[in-house]
Write a structure and sequence with these properties.
single chain; mainly alpha; 20 helices
Length: about 425
């Protein structure tokens, strides 16, 4: 029996295992089984490119069909695990594989887009699903629900677009260390989320909590610890239950729960309590693992790297930074890459790996400079200056160079 046949059989077995787990309500296990099946199918597709099978239309169609089944099943799991971004990606992959002819893929895409606060695009996807399969009941019910919501709240799309725009401006200002503008935009976002609660209906708490946690981060950067804690407490009250890092995973809005864990861990770091930050970061990472949310995973790995470093666990800090760097590169997130390189440089410096640390910090500076990210630039300058002062002969040139870097830190923060 050939290796390709074995791989196909193994992929089918993994998919069938996922089906059994899904029916039993073990969605996280099922999602993992489908992911394993997709890895086997990916390897099979790669080997087919180097063989005659790539030109065999029948074999290729069979491979596409098996992959589509796995992706749609994984998408269904992710929707139940609140991994809406990953679910969207799976549905879009099936649409691409089928040249836009898979009705169920459009249905799953519509479900994901609805939960990602894009009701107009959700309705369009559901409409296409119905066109491809007019007899299907679920897409019609979902479309009727989406249209009813848009009819009841005609300004919903405009409100959501405005909230996203204000949040983007706030994040950009935070990256550029313009804390005054970041605060202004986050306060505007909070005001709008509360004023438009009727239009947002079930999503109102989600957007309000995003603004509250954003304000907590701004306050932490401005050393306003009590105000930051007040904002996180307000978020916690809106969510309605407490996050216990050692307990069961919370129900409700897991995206906000993970964001809350990230912000709470950040506040612990600002308060110089790395031991308190670590379990919060671990709880957040457990949540994003089930959701396959790489963007939030990046943030939490960064917090974990800093917390482990502050706790004296330099190798653990290095491991977390390298994981984050791998995710950042795969996502093409240059800012996150700069932050991870910075954490990596600091962890390497703590281990006495001077040349590797210098290289990581130079890369952090280069990535931050390409974006004009003042906050990361200042941090990279500061870390490199400390490295210069700590290692090597304390020559006049070395001290002058380090002081120049520290001067740039002060000017950027000012």
């Amino acid at each position: 029996m050939g290796a390709a046949v074995l791989d196909r059989a193994a992929a089918t077995a993994q998919r069938e295992a996922g089906n059994t787990q899904f029916k039993a309500g073990r969605y996280a296990e099922a999602e993992s089984s489908y992911a394993d099946a997709l890895r086997l199918l990916s390897a099979l597709r790669s080997s087919a490119v180097c063989s005659d099978e790539a030109s065999d239309s029948v074999a290729l169609a069979a491979l596409n069909e098996e992959e589509s089944k796995c992706r749609l099943n994984r998408c269904a799991c992710l929707l139940r695990l609140q991994g809406y971004g990953a679910a969207r990606a799976e549905a879009e992959a099936v649409i691409s594989l089928s040249a836009g002819s898979n009705a169920k893929a459009y249905f799953r895409l519509g479900q994901a887009l609805e939960r990602l606060h894009e009701p107009r695009f959700a309705a369009a996807a559901l409409t296409q699903s119905i066109r491809l399969d007019p007899k299907a009941r679920e897409p019609r019910e979902a479309l009727e629900s989406a249209r009813s919501r848009l009819k009841a709240h005609p300004r919903l799309e405009l409100v959501l677009d405005d909230l996203r725009l204000v949040e983007e401006r706030a994040v950009r200002a935070l990256v550029q260390a313009d804390l005054s503008r970041a605060r202004q935009q986050m306060e505007l976002m909070l005001k709008d989320a509360r004023a438009q609660a009727a239009s947002l209906s079930g999503d109102a708490i989600h957007w309000e909590c995003r603004a509250l946690l954003g304000l907590a981060l701004v306050c932490a950067e401005e050393s306003e610890g009590e105000a930051a804690l007040d904002y996180t407490a307000a978020c916690r009250r809106r969510l309605g239950h407490c996050l216990d890092p050692g307990g069961d995973m919370p129900s409700g809005d897991l995206r906000i729960e993970a964001f809350h864990a990230h912000v709470a861990a950040q506040l612990c770091l600002h308060a110089r309590k790395p031991a308190d930050a670590l379990p919060l970061a671990a709880a957040g990472l457990a949540m994003v693992a089930s959701m396959r949310d790489d963007a939030m995973r990046l943030r939490l790995l960064g917090v974990q790297a800093v917390a482990r470093g502050a706790f004296g666990d330099a190798p653990g800090s290095e491991a977390a930074a390298r994981k984050g760097l791998e995710v950042a590169v795969s996502m093409g997130d240059v800012y996150a890459e700069a932050i991870c390189q910075l954490a990596l440089g600091r962890s390497l410096r703590a281990q006495g790996k001077v040349h590797a640390a210098a290289d990581a910090l130079r890369r952090a500076f280069g990535a931050a400079f390409s974006l004009g990210a003042a906050h990361a630039l200042a941090a990279a300058h500061s870390a490199y200056a400390v490295l210069q002062l700590e290692y090597g002969e304390p020559t006049r040139q070395r001290v002058v160079s380090a002081m120049e870097k520290l001067g740039k830190v002060r000017s950027r923060r000012g």
